Amino acid sequence: MVIPPVPSAPDLEPALYQSDGPVVFFPVRHHSPAAARLLAAFIRRIRPEAVLVEGPADFNDRIEELFLPHQLPVAIYSYFQKGERRRGAFYPFCIYSPEWQALVTGREVGAVVRFIDLPWADLSAAEEETLPAHRYADGPLRTSDCVAVLCERFAVGDFDELWDLLFEVDPDLSLEDYLQRCHRLCYLLRTSGGEVSAADLRREAFMAAQIRQIAAAASGPVLVVTGGFHSHALFSHLRSDSPPPVPCCPAVDERGIALTPYSYERLDRLTGYEAGMPGPGFYQHAWDHAMVARQILAAVAQDLRERKQVASSADLIAAWTMASALADLRGHRRVWRRDLIDGVTAALVKEELTAGLAHPFLAAVHAVLRGKQRGRLAPGTRLPPLVADLRRQLAHFNLEPQQRERTVELDLHEQASRDRSRVLHQLHTLEVAGFGLVGGSDLLGRDELERIWERWRLLWSPELEANAIEAAVYGPTLAEAAQSRLIEQVEQQERDAKAAARLVLAACQMGFSDLGAELLARLEKLLRGDHDFFALTAAAGSLLYLYRYDDALGSAGGEALGRLLAQVFDRSLGSMAKLGRVQGRDRELVQAVRTLLEICERCGAALGLDRAAVCATFAEVAADATALPLLRGATSGALWTLAAPGGADLSAFSAAGVIGDYLTGLFALGREVVQRQPELLSEIDELVSGFDEQTFLEALPALRLAFTSFSPREKHTLAQTLFPTAGDGPPPVPLAVDAQTAALALAFEAQVLAQLDRYGLRGGSKDV
Question: Name one Pfam family in it (predicted).
Fold first, then answer.
């Protein structure tokens, strides 16, 4: 198959294609091995005086760091803070990246190498919309309206296959063919893709000014290496008598730039507008070997063996045969990425492929295509202050992760352990790899708090240094960065009191129990947005523990915590008064009222709560005939406990369907007071004794539930109160059956007696 030419672009001037002018434009697709190979050879041939590369111009004063003996892939990480906005962006480099080859080959031939792109901080700080964090992505090319037309013309599935067909598959592609094809393709995609973004126009104005300045001082050729999307625009700017003005750079509060390790896994994860060349491991093989598909298939076989999957030699031969046939059918000069995937699928996958489920054979293929390479920075690379502080903290507290996993168990009642825990929680908040909390006390659920402890698993990760460098956007020290990240997490939540309580706990675990003005203001805003009674009272319970009972984190009695707790308490009371008849949440409802009562009892004076107003709200709910009996009972119990008037009248709950619910709430909140109120017990006894057998049986399950609030000793005390002489006689004969069976027997007996009464067959007294 002869590849048809890329449609002509009559507006393109022939001078753009020239490779021997004073300024030569070399268009690339980021991370294209074909572009990188041709570019390196071209630089060695023309030996330019300067090589200008699309990349962050604010890294030029540190560009020599790129030539240290790093293990690729690495990336330039640029970050800034402006007010509440924090952003970071990556410029990744693989061995086969054209930008990397331009840098190292340009340096090899003695050229001046410079980055010419508008610094990320200046670009993003001026934009309202969030720009892609991957600065070597294909977004503008992929989104062009022309892509679908070209894919149909060339009989390929997507932009990646289109690029492979035009540039990567043919190992003998000439420089002249590459330049013409790439300039034409990128120009067509740009001019058919709608309006160019303001951010790209600002970048191009900045790059054009850089090129013009360096070209004016150069006595030899200047080579400009940028994404093909920008080449024609830069060419036009240089030939224009009225170039666009250089964009002004807005002020930012803080900015930084540094090298960071990268990985093929991260590069392959990028999707959508941030996507670049897929399957970096494949293109690494394409860079290293002419017969890339054979190398890939051998690696797939090895990966399958490691996964304990059986693939015989015949299977692999079948996959290769199928892939080769597909390559011939598609007109590929050699077996390529899509041929290999389809060949394995057709030859080895016997089952129907289900959406969302990965077949082990295809998983092995994609793992090899992705690659395992992870970068590592060379000694001598300058790092952000955060990384140095992190290393100091880890060494000081003996928390440095090693190649071999180790476990650290901490007793938070000990100051030394508490200090180590705070560092670990700060790392956890910043998502620094290598530190995992695997066990310990549940301070959010507040279960088993006799001993407050934590167990952490420490294991060195190749992502550790990269995570630390990328976290530098949040601050120069570990504590500052963690607190800034926590504030950002609060900002990402909406109307969620439970999330607010969880983040307050995280702050206390990191040693920020005073919260700070900025964090406190955002937490207050988050809590104000939630109107859910159950979420508010759950948050109140967490805050109550930290403010009143904590003896391990150092948060008890904190002024900021008290302020939050008082606000949540007030909002919870207001929400309870408007609750309505919620269903299916009985246990939560009782616990919610219990939490409010406990706050009033334990912290009312310290928080300055208006006890009279609190009791008035409880009384209002207790008297509300539209409220659930359970809630009315709970608020009545709270009033009894607070020795306040206003509880509901028991006679209002004489029906069998409601008395048990009312008493459940009453006993749960007023258990101790009820035991000291014989009048109430007598009233309950009188009410229940008036039930006939059927009514009593209907009320019995809820009544039994209500009395579970009391311990066996307390139940005995209640019985003694009702029947002072009940224990004087001989003990009753123990039941031979369980309580449920006895209740069924009583119900059956009542039915039999009712039938006897109906037909006048029951003689003597009805008490017999």
Answer: DUF5682
- CA 404, distance to chain mean position in Å, is 27
DSSP labels for 481-540? HHHHHHHHHHHT--S-HHHHHHHHHHHHHTT-TT--HHHHHHHHHHHHT---HHHHHHHH
Q: What is the pLDDT of residue 370?
A: 87
List C-alpha distances in Å: 501 to 83, 133, 168, 522, 637: 25, 31, 54, 12, 27
Give me 308's structure tokens. 């304990």
Cis peptide before 73 (omega within 30 of 0): yes
Closest C-alpha among 147, 224, 238 to residue 193: 147
Largest CA distance in the chain: 129
Q: Residue 491 corresponds to which amino acid?
A: E
Contact 630, 591 (CB under 8 A): no
Tokens of 605: 């004076």
Tokens of 676: 């000291």
pLDDT in tens, 610-647: 999 999 999 999 988 888 989 999 999 999 899 888 76
Does residue 56 contact residue 115 with C-beta atoms inside 8 Å?
A: yes
Secondary structure letter of residue 11 according to DSSP: T
Tokens 């990646």 locate to 160
Instruction: Provide the 8-state DSSP code for 374.
Output: B
User: Which residue's structure tokens are 């005073």?
Assistant: 514
How far apart are the C-alpha atoms of 393 and 400, rounded to whole Å? Answer: 9
Q: Which of 624, 618, 619, 625 is nearest to 646 (CA)?
A: 619
Count the Cβ atoms, other than its own, within 10 Å of residue 257: 23
Model pTM score = 0.76
CB-based contacts of 664: which residues, under 8 Å, 6+ apart? 586, 590, 630, 633, 702, 705, 706, 709
- Greater confidence, 13 or 171? 171
Measure CA 445 to chain center.
22
Reported as a pLDDT band with limits 50, 70 and 90, residue 445 is confident
Query: 458: which strand partners?
Result: 406, 435
Residue of 525, 500, 503, 521 lying closest to 512 (CA atoms): 503
Return the exposure string of 730-739: e unless at least 16 CB atoms fall within 10 Å of the residue's CB, then b.
Answer: eeeeeeeeee
The string of pLDDT tens digits covering residues 417-439 is 999 999 999 999 999 999 999 99
Whole-number Å distance between alpha carbons of 496 and 524: 11
Task: Evaluate whether 358 touches 306 at the Cβ level (below 8 Å).
Answer: no
What's 196's DSSP letter?
P
CA distance 347 to 361: 10
Determine the residue type at 258: A
| Strands (DSSP E) found in 108-185 | 112-117
- Mean pLDDT, range 497-508, rounded to an integer: 94
Token look-up 């992760």 returns 401
The DSSP code for 623 is T
Q: How far is CA 372 from CA 76, 301, 336, 368, in A?
A: 20, 16, 20, 8
**Residue 37: its pLDDT value, please?**
96
CA-closest candidate to residue 108, choices 28, 42, 179? 42
Asked if residues 454 and 441 have their Cβ atoms less than 8 Å apart, the reply is: yes
How many angstroms separate the CA atoms of 362 and 367, rounded?
8
